[in-house]
Design goal:
With 529 residues, the protein is of the alpha/beta class. 36% of the residues lie in helices and 18% in strands. Strands 1-2-3-4-5 form a 5-stranded parallel β-sheet. A 5-stranded parallel β-sheet has the order 8-7-6-9-20. Strands 11-18-12-13-14 form a 5-stranded parallel β-sheet. Helix 5 (101-112) links the parallel strand 2 (84-92) and strand 3 (119-124). Helix 16 (368-375) packs parallel to helix 17 (395-407) and helix 17 (395-407) runs parallel beside helix 18. The chain is globular, with a radius of gyration of 27 Å. The chain starts with 6 loop residues before the first helix and ends with a helix. The relative contact order is 0.09.
Length: 529
């Protein structure tokens, strides 16, 4: 793009952008931040990798930063000294020959030397294999770019620095400010998860914050699916009265029994209880969370606990009663004399057709969820080959594969599709492919297992190409598991209906989906009861 614009085009762009800033000011905005990172247009001008111009807007560093320098000056002239101008600059875009920390220091120095901008911050990644750096996810540490920011601060000529990048907890933010590492904190995804983040932190209500999980679902909905922004931990994104929302009480209270303490059931339970219903949650696990609690124990899963942690706090505040640690049956449900029952009992993975009847009945091969619960007990590395058959293609499946790669000498991931992670946003998929590759996982697309005598006779698994039928053997089979679409677990549905009880299906018990759908559906049902 930088090479396609003439110098006259660039000057017109600068004028147009400056006029846009003036329009923002007249509309009531306090300032504007120039997005000059993430591989966007201004970043492309900065980068020696993309800017091959030989005129005044290329050639050397002064030329490459000229467009932004001129724009900052133009905005200041039009909007005056009280209008805030922020610069978001590349810190490390992860592209060879482009902008790393050393180049970022030069850019920052040149653009802050005139002391016109009010603050500066540094972004990472670009629209390349480093796109995942753009919005750091839960597979890395909190505040991952702090060290780079510390280094680059010396090049900012005293311009206030804004820290950003997976800052989710008020204690993290306060620590950065208290240590003098930055003057400002930039929050994005954390405010999508809870727009009341700051007032709750100020009031000492940090336990009531709906924390960002760093899953990048928000990014995925708007960038990949072109849908309105959504959040797995905030079902009320963009809804009226979203900030610090608490439901209004209903004039007609009912006895509601929620069977299942996963994230769908718990979301429904606390909302219904807050509306004034008498709510009892029956859960077979000793603690709430359901399948999300297992996910929390897998690589990159730690933050998922913030969903059910918030729900448990909200349920206690609303007066919902939790009876956990025992699987519910019809008699137990009916004994509570419910006016309505919510079945949030989840689903079970479909047993694949290639698995023999004997293998199904013996439990020799179990689904990935069951397998993970067992594998997590392993303390030492295991010899042999672990094979995962993937028809689920979810982030949780690949977290399980990552764990297996730490425990087995060889891991093979089979899928009958042409690739993996097909339903996951690019920004997340990049990280999955990178981690699995670095862990040595062998990804075998267009392949599926064949249940044959070689398993017992040779300790090897035959696999078959789905089109050609070509077969090969994977020796030293130590583990075989599958991750497949889920079948609703609704054994209680008909007996409860036969007893005359109003039953609502929720979450995977209605239709298998993801955490985003679970919290959204639970929230909606809790409000509708």
């Amino acid at each position: 793009m930088p090479r396609e614009l003439s110098a006259a085009d660039i000057r017109q762009l600068v004028e147009d952008f400056a006029q846009s800033s003036l329009l923002l000011q007249r509309s009531g905005f306090s300032g504007v931040e120039l997005s000059a990172g993430h591989g966007h247009l201004f970043h492309q001008f900065f980068s020696p990798h993309s800017n091959r111009r030989e005129d005044a807007y290329g050639g050397d560093w002064e030329g490459r930063v000229r467009i932004v320098a001129e724009l900052v000056a133009a905005i200041r002239q039009l909007c005056g000294s009280q209008f805030i101008i922020g610069l978001k600059l590349p810190g490390d875009d992860g592209v060879s020959g482009s902008v790393g920390p050393e180049e970022a220091a030069v850019i920052a120095d040149l653009l802050t030397r005139p002391r016109v901008a009010d603050y500066v911050c540094f972004a990472h990644g670009a629209h390349a294999r480093s796109l995942e750096l753009h919005v750091p996810d839960r597979h890395g540490p909190p505040v991952p770019y702090l060290d780079t920011m510390r280094r680059l601060r010396e090049s900012c000529n005293g311009t206030p620095l804004m820290a950003l990048g997976r800052i989710t907890d008020p204690a993290e933010a306060e620590g950065i400010l208290a240590r003098g590492e930055a003057e400002l904190i930039g929050l994005g995804r954390a405010l999508i998860a809870d727009p009341a983040w700051l007032p709750k932190a100020r009031a000492g209500r940090s336990n009531e914050i709906r924390y960002c999980v760093s899953c990048n679902t928000c990014w995925e909905t708007i960038i990949s699916h072109r849908q309105p922004i959504a959040c797995i931990n905030n079902p009320r994104v963009a809804e009226p009265e979203e900030v610090d929302w608490w439901p209004a009480r209903t004039p007609e209270t009912r006895r509601v029994v929620v069977v299942g303490a996963g994230v769908a059931g718990m979301e429904c339970a606390w909302v219904a209880a807050a509306r004034g219903h008498e709510v009892t949650v029956l859960g077979k696990g000793a603690e709430p969370g359901g399948a999300a609690r297992l996910r929390e124990r897998l690589p990159g899963g730690e933050t998922i606990s913030s969903i059910y942690d918030y729900q448990q706090v909200a349920a206690a505040r609303a007066g919902a009663r939790l009876e956990l640690g025992r699987k519910a049956d019809v008699q137990r449900v009916l004994a509570l004399r419910p006016d309505a029952v919510v079945l949030a009992t989840g689903g079970v993975m479909h047993v694949p057709d290639w698995l023999s009847d004997d293998a199904r009945e013996s439990g020799l091969v179990t689904d990935l969820r069951t397998t993970m619960a067992e594998v997590l007990r392993f303390k030492e590395r295991q010899d042999g080959t672990a094979v995962v058959y993937d028809m689920d293609h979810s982030e949780g499946t690949y977290a399980g594969v990552e764990l297996l790669a730490k425990l087995f000498t060889r891991v093979v991931l089979l899928t009958p599709r042409d690739t993996i992670a097909t339903e996951i946003a690019t920004v997340t998929r990049q990280g999955i492919l990178r981690r699995l590759s670095l862990a040595g996982v062998e990804i075998r697309p267009l392949m599926e297992p064949v249940w044959s005598e070689t398993i017992e006779e040779e300790g090897a698994l035959e696999i078959r190409h789905v089109y050609s039928g070509r077969r090969e053997k994977l020796p030293d089979l130590a583990l075989l598991t599958y991750s497949t679409p889920r079948v609703p677990d609704i054994a209680l549905l008909q007996p409860l209906r036969d007893a005359g009880v109003q039953v609502h299906l929720l979450g995977d018990a209605l239709t298998p989906h993801n955490v985003l759908a679970a919290t959204a559906a639970g929230h909606a049902l809790g409000n509708a009861l």
